[in-house]
């Protein structure tokens, strides 16, 4: 058990809809990272938050947004969903200033767009 | 730009034989390198890391990795493979802290260990 919790495990929805993915980091970790895993793109970094503030952005679409709350949990919001958004979305957390430390991953949310 | 390459999509090994999963990297500065394993319908599990020091790094489940600066490689190894080692393996390099410290992953290598 990594200590990172992601809900829900599975989401099935239709094109044009909006969904919210939730992540609770390991106790004490201030950084939260979101990644997307798909067959054609592999594992891609989306966005990072550190102690409530956006820290870095990757290949995140404008239709996607995220935030980190005062209790350090994070949410990834995906809107105007398209078939190509079907993927596994992972959240990871790491210790403060932990660039030498591993990131710890949740089990992911599998998003299926019908 | 930092990048990682895993040249083999799949590696097949017989149980009990040694295994190697290859990884090469391209970074500016000192690399922070990681190996992760992913089992079906699960997240990525951390295996081991290289930050500095000894070139041979030991990790979880009997895995080890050899850092080679001249060949810019960080190959994952295990002396004796188990069927339960069958999974998807990812090599990753960590971006500098001033770039957020994200992980940059290779394409992944599917390891299949047959009895």
Describe the structure.
- The complex is a heterodimer of chains A (114) and B (115).
- With 114 residues, chain A is mainly beta.
- Helix content of chain A is 0%, strand content 53%.
- Chain A is built from no helices and eleven strands.
- In chain A, the strands form two sheets. In chain A, strands 2, 4, 5, 6, 9, 10 and 11 form a seven-stranded mixed beta sheet that branches. A four-stranded antiparallel beta sheet of chain A has the order 1-3-8-7, with no helix packed on it.
- Chain A starts with a strand and ends with a strand.
- The model of chain A has no long low-confidence stretch (mean pLDDT 94).
- With 115 residues, chain B is mainly β.
- Chain B contains no helices and twelve strands.
- Chain B has strands at 3-5, 10-14, 19-21, 24-26, 33-38, 44-50, 56-58, 64-68, 73-78, 87-94, 103-105, 109-114.
- In chain B, strands 2, 5, 6, 10, 11 and 12 form a six-stranded mixed beta sheet that branches.
- Chain B starts with a strand and ends with a strand.
- Chain A binds chain B through residues 2, 4, 6, 31, 33, 35, 42-43, 45, 48, 55-56, 58, 90, 92, 94, 97-100, 102-108, 110, and chain B through 32, 34, 36, 41-46, 49, 51, 90, 94-97, 99-105, 107-108.
Order of H and E elements of chain A? EEEEEEEEEEE
Low-confidence stretches of chain A are: none
- Gyration radius of chain A, in Å: 13 Å
Low-confidence stretches of chain B: none
Major β-sheet annotation of chain A: 7 strands, mixed
Q: Could you give a quick summary of the protein structure above?
A:
The complex is a heterodimer of chains A (114) and B (115). By secondary structure, chain A is mostly beta strands.
List keywords for this structure.
heterodimer, A: 114 residues, mainly beta, B: 115 residues, six-stranded mixed beta sheet, four-stranded antiparallel beta sheet, 0% helix, 50% strand
